[in-house]
Each structure stands twice: as C-alpha cells, then as structure tokens.
C-alpha cells in the first residue's frame, strides 16, 4: 500500500471519529483546536488505527498525534512503514 493510500485511510478514520467530512481534515489541522476533539475521541482514533493496522501504539503517544501528518508519522513508526 502506498503512502498516499495510507494517509487517505487515516484521514477517513479521523473524519469519521470527529464527525466531519474527510476533505475538511487538513494535514496540519489540530484535532483539538480545529475540530474540537476531546480525549475520548483521541482514544477512539487510536483504537481504530490499532485495529485496522494491527499495531499497538502506547497512549503516551496521543499528545504527539495532534494532526493528520503527526498521526501518520507515529503510526508509520510503530507499523514499520517505509516511505
């Protein structure tokens, strides 16, 4: 799977949890500030990512996963994706 495909897959997950359209989720849009995500939604995003990609990401990484680009980088690190 390509980097672009994975990125768009993550965008879909985030949009669904945040209840916005995927095209509204920008690469650098802050989940909390721009989309009013709370800690429950952040955990939901993490849980869906872990289930989809069969990876385990510590909740201590949640503060890093503040936007789509940063989330991709964290997931890539734990999933062993090579760009």
Structure report:
It contains four helices and no strands. The chain is mainly α. It has one domain (3-79): ACP-like (Non-ribosomal Peptide Synthetase Peptidyl Carrier Protein, Chain A), CATH 1.10.1200.10. α1 packs antiparallel against α3 and α1 crosses α4.
Give the arrangement of secondary structure elements.
Blueprint (H helix, E strand, L loop, with lengths): L2 H16 L12 H5 L3 H15 L14 H12 L4
Helix pairs in contact: 1-3, 1-4
Rg calc: 11 Å
Mean pLDDT: 95
CATH C-level: Mainly Alpha
How many strands, which pairing sense, and closed or not: the largest β-sheet?
Answer: none
Q: Give the tally of structural domains.
A: 1
Q: Would you give the CATH topology?
A: Non-ribosomal Peptide Synthetase Peptidyl Carrier Protein, Chain A
The end-to-end span amounts to 11 Å
Helical/strand content category: mainly alpha
Provide the helix percentage: 55-70%
CATH homology superfamily: ACP-like
Strand content: under 5%
What is the architecture at the second tier of CATH?
A: Orthogonal Bundle
Overall geometric form: globular
Low-confidence segments: none
Count of DSSP strands: 0
- Please report the number of helical segments: 4
Q: From N to C, what is the helix and strand string? A: HHHH
């Amino acid at each position: 799977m390509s980097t672009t495909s994975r990125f768009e897959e993550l965008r879909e997950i985030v949009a669904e949890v945040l209840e916005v359209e995927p095209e509204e989720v920008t690469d650098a849009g802050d989940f909390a500030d721009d989309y009013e995500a709370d800690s429950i939604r952040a955990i939901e995003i993490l849980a869906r990512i872990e289930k989809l990609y069969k990876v385990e990401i510590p909740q201590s990484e949640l503060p890093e996963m503040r936007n789509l680009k940063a989330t991709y980088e964290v997931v890539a690190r734990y999933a062993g994706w090579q760009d």
